[in-house]
Specification:
Blueprint (H helix, E strand, L loop, with lengths): L6 H10 L5 E4 L1 E2 L2 E2 H11 L1 H4 L2 E5 L15 E3 L4 H16 L5
Parallel strand pairs: 1-4, 4-5
Antiparallel strand pairs: 2-3
Helix pairs in contact: 1-2
């Protein structure tokens, strides 16, 4: 597990590192989960499908910016979050057919 303190730091790390799954806050001091998702979609599309969002706000909704990407409220339903992360990791590690 690798932890960074900002969206900008996450983008810098993702330029050079590969991760099976990415958990990102939706709201950050220096950007947002939407910014991270847009960057991933443009620069590293394969990892865009590995992003899961966490949020404090009830009104936060990634569906228009990151359709299909899951969002979990902080402190709630950790079993569902764990299940989603497990599936993302399983898919990211599955051998590709060529």
């Amino acid at each position: 597990m690798t932890r960074v303190e900002s969206g900008h730091a996450a983008i810098l790390l993702l330029h050079h590192e590969e991760f099976d799954a990415i958990v990102s806050d939706w709201q950050m001091d220096d950007g947002s989960g939407a910014d991270l998702y847009r960057w991933a979609l443009a620069e590293r599309p394969a990892i865009a499908e590995r992003i899961v969002f966490l949020s404090d706000g009830e009104a936060d909704d990634p569906s228009t910016i990151a359709p299909g990407r899951p969002m979990f409220r902080k402190g709630q339903d950790s079993h569902a979050l764990t299940s989603v992360l497990y599936e993302i990791v399983r898919q990211s590690r599955a051998p590709t057919l060529t």
